[in-house]
Design brief:
Elements: H1 2-7, H2 26-41, H3 43-46, H4 52-79, H5 82-102, H6 105-122
Length: 123
């Protein structure tokens, strides 16, 4: 979970809103994607390896964090200034990739439509 929260930072002391003050870090992005692949890929082995509860918690926490972050990034795409919107677009792309790994392709399509609508509303 630290890998995903590291790549998708939240502001401290503001009630947990997404932080778009810095561009996405490439190394943290790669770590987040690897972690999501590990969490999803280990699902079939978790029961046999006696770590099903830990795997389920990691999956659920990652999904909840991602959903919360997605809401903030879509809001930022709608209304932020041009500089922050450009940064948010990078985070949005990572959210799309993580959504594909943790949720489904149907969720990816929905998220991409939401992103396009948000950018159109900002224009």
């Amino acid at each position: 979970m630290r890998e995903i929260s590291g790549a998708l930072p939240m502001q401290k002391g503001t009630g947990g809103t997404a932080d778009f003050n810095r561009p996405l870090d490439r190394e943290k992005r790669e770590l987040a994607l690897k972690y999501a692949k590990l969490v999803v890929g280990s699902r079939n082995f978790a029961a046999a390896g006696s770590f099903a509860a830990k795997q389920k918690t990691a999956f659920e926490d990652s999904c909840a964090y991602l959903r919360r972050y997605i809401e903030d990034v879509v809001k930022e795409l709608k209304g932020g200034d041009a500089g922050r919107r450009a940064i948010a677009e990078g985070y949005f792309q990572l959210c799309v990739e993580l959504t594909g790994l943790l949720f489904s392709e149907k969720e990816v399509e929905l998220l991409q439509r939401r992103g396009k609508a948000a950018l159109a509303a900002a224009a």
